[in-house]
């Protein structure tokens, strides 16, 4: 059973870059079964899809974030990553890494990233 | 972007009674290539990630109790909990995966009356 775990700094200063990594266990990230996505959720609010990456390296990003987002996959480490540049307080949220086959499943537990000086 | 609108924002239902949540998309999410609606439902409990309940608008995920059912087509969809249990208290989200950016409804909070 595939499981996901996010890691990265919990505090990022405004204007800096948010960097998160998702480690996949229970199966190879290169299986081709899943698109690998990032979704975020501000406290007490709804879900926002950030984007997705496939094992081929192909990506789709939310246009609302496209100018600041990049995703990558490192198959040797069974990981995929998110970078979000020029962060502001509005980027404070719980960030989830997620596998997508039909619908989003499985999910990581989520990691809270706070943007503050 | 496809806007997903859920109603109501919250509802209180007695234990054992039916709970109905509606989701409307701003355009059809019926996939003509397979005649399936690209619509999923999730349950989120406090402090937990969302859990996939239903996909293709009406296909229950493995392990999901059969009191959860999904219906609808085109732009109008419904999640029904046929007999509310205490463990069903949660926020429920609909999600369209018809096109990018993938979008979610704002969520419906279900509580016990």
Give a nutshell description of this structure.
Chain A contains no helices and eleven strands. With 117 residues, chain A is an all-beta fold.
Could you describe the 3D structure shown?
The complex is a heterodimer of chains A (117) and B (113). Chain A has 117 residues and is mostly beta strands. Chain A contains no helices and 11 strands. In chain A, the strands form 2 sheets. In chain A, strands 2, 4, 5, 6, 9, 10 and 11 form a 7-stranded mixed β-sheet that branches. Chain A has a 4-stranded antiparallel β-sheet with strand order 1-3-8-7, with no helix packed on it. In chain A, a hairpin with a 3-residue loop joins strand 9 (93-100) and strand 10 (104-107). The model of chain A has no long low-confidence stretch (mean pLDDT 97). Chain B has 113 residues and is mostly beta strands. Helix content of chain B is 0%, strand content 51%. Chain B contains no helices and 13 strands. Chain B has strands at residues 4-7, 10-13, 19-25, 30-31, 36-37, 39-44, 51-55, 59-60, 68-73, 76-81, 90-96, 103-104, 108-112. In chain B, the strands form 3 sheets. In chain B, strands 2, 6, 7, 8, 11, 12 and 13 form a 7-stranded mixed β-sheet that branches. Chain B is globular, with a radius of gyration of 13 Å. In chain B, 37% of the residues are buried. The chains are: A mainly beta (117), B mainly beta (113). Chain A binds chain B through residues 46-49, 52, 60, 62-64, 96, 100, 102-105, 107-110, and chain B through 1, 40, 42, 48-52, 55-56, 61, 93, 95, 97, 100-107.
Our count of helices of chain A gives 0
Number of helical regions of chain B? 0
Q: What is the count of β-strands of chain B?
A: 13
**Beta content of chain A:** over 45%
Query: If you average the pLDDT of chain A, what whole number results?
Result: 97
Distance between the termini of chain B: 36 Å
Characterize the overall form of chain A: globular
Q: Per DSSP, what share of the residues of chain B sits in E-state strands of 2 or more residues?
A: over 45%
